[in-house]
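Researcher: Before we compare anything, I want clean individual predictions. No alignment, no superposition, just each chain on its own. First chain goes here; please echo the sequence and then give the C-alpha cells.
Model: Echoing the first chain and its structure:
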Amino acid sequence: MTPLEKTSQDGFADAHATAHANTHVDTHVDTPVAAHIDMHVATHVADPRRWIALAVLLTGAFLPILDFNVVNLALPAIGRSLDATPGEIEFIISAYAATYAVFLITGGRLGDLFGRKRMFVTGVAGFTLASVLCGLAPSARALIAARILQGLTATIMAPQVLASIRVLFPPAEHTRAFALYGATFGLANICGQVLGGALVSLRPWGLSWQAIFLVNVPIGLVAFAGGLAFLRDSRADHAQRLDVGGVALLSCTLGLLVYPLVEGRETGWPAWLVAMLVAAPGAFALFVRFERRLAARGGSPLVDLALFGEPGFAVGVAMAFALYTLSSFYLTFSVYLQGGLHLTPLDAGLATLPYAVGYFIASLASAKVMDRLGTRALTLGFALQVVGFGLAALAVSHLVAVHLQIGLALAGLGFGTVMPSVIKAIVGGIAPKHAGLASGIVISTFQIASALGVAVVGTVFYSELGESRDAAAFGHAFSVALACNVGLLAVGGALSLCLPGPRANITDAARARAGHR
C-alpha cells in the first residue's frame, strides 16, 4: 500500500478487488475485470451488519496508506535521531515495498485457504505489533526489520478487505462499497500528509518520529476488535495452493538486486556487492524456470507467465513499472524540503498538498475521461505528469519563473488521471477467468517498481548531493532525481500508446469466446 493502494472510484477499486480475491471457481461473471465472484455471492442473503463490517474493513485498509505517507515525511527526523545512513533511509521504504510485492498474492491465497476474517484480524494484529516495534526501534537496522514485518503483515491484511467486501455485499451494492473504499485511500493520503508532519513537529508526549508509528496502535486495536465482532468469515470454493518455491526465488532475486543498488554507493562497490548484482539475473531466470515447470505440472504459480503472451499485457506491465518508480519522489522531495529548505515536517506535509489535492480531483473524473478517451486517457495522464514534474524540476533549479506548487498540482492531476484506471486498462483484454491473477501481477509490479525506484533514483539523489548540505546542493540533487522520474514517466507514456484500445480488447475477447466454443 503503499502508493500501490492509492485508489479511487469504482473502476480501479473493482480491478483491485480481483487482484486480492485470487480464487478459482467454476462459475464466472463474464466481465473484463470482475472475474472471480463466486456464484453464491450473487445469490446470498445480505448480511444485516455489512455496513458496520465495511467500516471495520476500511479502518484496516486505512492503516498501510496512512503509514506510507507519514513515514515519508518523518524520514529526515528518523535519519537524525537514529544516525541512519542514506542507504538505511532508502531501505526503510524499499524493504517494505519489496516485502509487499513478494507476499501480496500469497496473502490473498491465505485468506482463500484459511478464511478471510481470520487472516484479516491476524494481519491487523501483526501490523499493529510491527508498528509498536517500529516506534520502539533503537537503531536504523531494527527499524528496517520492523518495517519488513509491517510489509509482511500488510499483505496478510490488505487482500482480505476487498475479497470480504465482495462476499458481504450483493452485486447491486458493490459500486457504492467500492466507492467508499476508494474514498478511504484519498482520505488516508491527505491525512497522512498533514498528520505525519503534525506528529513529528508537535512531538506529542515527548515523542518525535516514533509517534507516526505508535498512532497506528489505537486504529489497529479498533480494527482488530471490530473484525472479531462484526466480520463474517468466508473462503474460496476452490482456493489456489501456495507457491513457496516461487516466493523464495522472487525474494532472493529482489534481495540480490535491491541491496547492492542501495548499499553500493556508500560502500564503494566491494566485489561481493558486485557479485550479488551480477547474480540477480540468474536468480530471476531460475524463478522463471520454476514458475513454468510448476504451471506445466498443473500447480498454482505465483506468476502465470503465459499471461505475458496476452495482447498488451507485457507492455502494460512495463508501463506500470515506469509509473511506480515515481515512489522515489516522496523520499527525495521530503529530504529536499526538510534538509535543504529547513521546513518543519508539518510545513513539508502542507507543501505536498497541491499534489495530493490534484490527484484527488482528477481521480473523481478519471472514469469519465477513461470512457471518453479509452487508453489514451493514460497517455494524457502521463503527459500531465511529465509536464508537471518537469516544471517542478525547472522551478527548483531556478531555470523558469514558475511556482513549484503549480508543477506539483499538474503532476497530481496526471497521477489522478492514470492511477484509478491503469489496472483496468492493462487487463481489459485478458480472458475473464485470468483477470484476477493478471491484476495481482500488475499490483506486485507496482511494489517492485517502488522498491527499485527508491533504490536507484534515491542513489542518484544522494550521489548528486555528496557531502554538501546547503540549499543549492539539495535543490540540484532533487532536480536531477526528479529529472530521472520525468524520463521514466515519458517512457510510461510512450508505452501507453502501445496498449490495445477498447475495440481491440473486444475483438480479442470475442475471438477467445469463439475459440472456446
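Researcher: Okay. Second chain, same rules.
Model: Second chain and its structure:
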Amino acid sequence: MESRIDTRKAWAVYAALLFGTFITIEAAAFQAPALPSVTRHFGIQVNMAALVLILYSLALTVFAPIMGRLGDEYGRKRILSIGMLVFAVSEFAAAWAPDFGLFLAARFVQGLGAACILPGVFAYAAHLFPDNKRGLALGVLAFTMTFGAASGGLLGGLLIDRLGWPSVYWISGALTLAGLLPVRLLVPEIAPAKARSAFDHTGAMLLFAVIAALLSLPTWATNFGKESIVTWAIVIVGTGSLALLWRHSRKTENPVIDVGLLSRRAFATPSAIYWLHMIFASGIVYSLAFFINSRPDGTAAQFGFVTLFLYGSGLLSSPIAGRLVDRIEPRLLSIAAMLASLIGTLLFLNIEVDTPLWMIIVIACILGLSIGCNTPAIMKLALGAVPAKDMGAGSGLFSMFRDLGSPTGSSLSLAVFGASLAHATHSAIARQTASLGFDATTVDGLARAAGSRAREVPAELANELADAGLAADVLMNQAMLEGLNAALSNVGYMLLGLITVALGLSLQLMRTHGPAAAGEAQLHTD
C-alpha cells in the first residue's frame, strides 16, 4: 500500500472528497420529497413512480464495482472527477426534461455519475487513514452522508413547495460543479494499484441483467400480477443471469464482481447486513413520503422535517459510533443498532393518519440513531477484509451493496404501499356501499376516484350516493384514510421481517481480537 500523507493534510484532502459525497447524497435525498410531485407532473401511477428510482439505482449499482476497478487501473481522482462532471450535467438535463422518458434517461446518467464518486471516496478513506484512525474517518463519512440525506429531505421539501420540483435538480447540478473545484485542486492522484486489463464486458452485461431484474420485479409484479408471464420472465432472466455471472466471474481473471471477496465471510456478512439495513431505511423514507403527503393537511415540507430528524439523529450517532469502533468490537455496536431498529419498527407499526407529527418524528429519531450507529461499524468490518491492492474493487463492491439496498427498499415499499392502498381503499368503499347494490365496475370507479387528486365522480353517481345519505367526498376520504393506514402497516410488517434477518446476521459477525490489529492484518493480506 502507498505511504500515507500526514494527518492534517489527510483531513484537508478528505474534506474536499466529503463535499462531493455530500452533494451526491443530498441530490439522492431530493428524490423522496420530489417523487410525489414528479408523479403528478408526468401523470404516472404511484407504483410506476419506482422507475424514477430504479433507473438511477440500476446505473449506480451496476457501474459502482466497474468504476471502482477502473479507479484501481486508471487513477481514482480521474474517475471521480469525470463522475462529478457527468452527474452535474445530468442533473440539469432532469430539470429541463419535457417528458417522462427523457427524465428517466437523465436519472440513469445521474446514477452513472454517482457510481464514479462513491467508490472513489471509500477507497481514499482506506488510503488516507491507518486502521486505528479509520473508524473516526468512516464515522465522519457516515455523518456527511447522513447530513446530505437530512438536508436534502428538508431543503427539497421547502424548494418544491415554493419553486417546484425542477428547482432541486438545478441546484444540485450547480453545487456539484462547485464541488469539483476543490477536488481538482486538493486531492492527489493515487498511483494505479493494478496494471490495466481487458474490460469484462460479459460480466457487466450479466450484472446489468441481474440488477435490473431485482430492482424492477416488485414494480412489474404489482402492475401485471404475480402469475403474469412478464413477472415470471423477469424472475427467470434474473436468476439465470445470476447463475451465469457467478460461473463467469469464477473463471475470469479480472471480473466485474470479485467472487473471491464475496466468498470471504469477513466481507460478505457485513455487506449483507448493510444491504438489508439500506433496504430498511429506504423503505421507511419512501413509505412515509407518500403517507405524509397523502394524509389530511400533509405537505412535502412536513415530510422534509421528518427526514431532517431521521437523518439528523444519524448525524449525532455516526461520528460517536466511529470513535467507538476504534475502541470496541464493531460487532457489538452493530448488534445494538439492529436491536434499536427492531424497537423502532415496532413503534412504526402504530403510526396512523391521525398520529401527531411530533410522534412520527420521535420514531424517526430512534430509527435514525440505529442507522447512524450501524454504518461505521459495518464499513470498518467490510473494508478491513479487503486487501490493499484490491481496495478500489472492494470498495466498489461494498458500495454496490449500499446502492442496491436503497432502490430495493424504495421499490419494495412503493409496491407494497401502492398495492395495499388500492386494495384497502377498494374494500372500504365496497363495504360502505354494500347496501346500495353497486356493481363491481361502479365500485372500481369510486376507488380510482378516491386515489386521484381531483376525486371527481359522475353527477348521477354522486346523486345516488346522496339519496342513500352518503356524500361522495366523505365516502372517498374515509376509504382513503383506511387505505393509508393499511398501506403503511403492511410496509411496516415487511420491514420488521427484514430487520429480524439483519439482526440474526449481526450475531454471526466475526469477532475481532483487537480494535486495530484485526483489520490491519486483513488489510495487508493479499
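Researcher: What stands out in the second chain?
Model: Confidence is low (pLDDT under 50) at residues 514-526. Additionally, The CA atoms of residues 154 and 304 lie 4 Å apart.
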